[in-house]
Amino acid sequence: HEVLQKYHMLQRQCSNLSTRILNDSRLNPVRRNGLAAYILTNAFNRVVSIKFNLRDFYHFSRLREDAHAQTEICVLANKMADLIKERTILGVLLGGKHEFDELAGVVDANL
User: Distance between CA atoms of 8 and 43, rounded to whole angstroms?
Assistant: First the structure.
C-alpha cells in the first residue's frame, strides 16, 4: 500500500512538473512540448498510425524482425507480419535478415 501511495505521489509530481514546463514561455515550443511529454510516467509509450504498401513493409520486416533488432520493435514487427501473412500469399516472404535462407527455401519449395 505504501509503495502505491509513493507511486501516485510521483505521478502527481511528474504531472505538475510537466505542466510547469508547458507553461514556461522561455523554452522553444517544440522543445517544451517534447520535454513536457517525456517527463510523464510511461512517456515512452506512443500510439503511432502508419501506412505501408507490401513492398515498404517487406523492407521494414527485414530490418525490424531481425535477431539484432530492438526487442520491443521486433515483437511489434512480428505481430504486424503475422497479420499480413494471414491476408496475403506474399506474406511468406516476411521475416528478419537472419531468416533469409529459410525464407528462400520456402519460396523455392513452392515454385
Answer: 16
| Cβ pair 43, 37 in contact under 8 A | yes
Sign, Cα dihedral of 82, 83, 86, 87? negative
Classify residue 109 by burial, with Cβ atoms within 10 Å: 0-12, 13-18, 19+: exposed
Scanning 23-99, the segments in alpha helix (DSSP H) are: 29-39, 54-64, 71-87
Please provide the distance, in angstroms rounded to a whole number, between the alpha carbons at the two ends of the chain: 62
Q: pTM surpassing 0.85?
A: no
Cα 27 to Cα 96: distance, rounded to the nearest angstrom? 42
Amino acid at 76: L
Instruction: Yes or no: say if 65 and 95 are a contact pair by the CB < 8 Å rule.
Output: yes
pLDDT digits (tens, 9 = 90+) for 83-97: 888 887 776 667 776
How far lies 12's CA from each of 18, 37, 71, in Å? Answer: 10, 14, 30
Task: Give the Cβ contact number of residue 42 at 10 Å.
Answer: 8
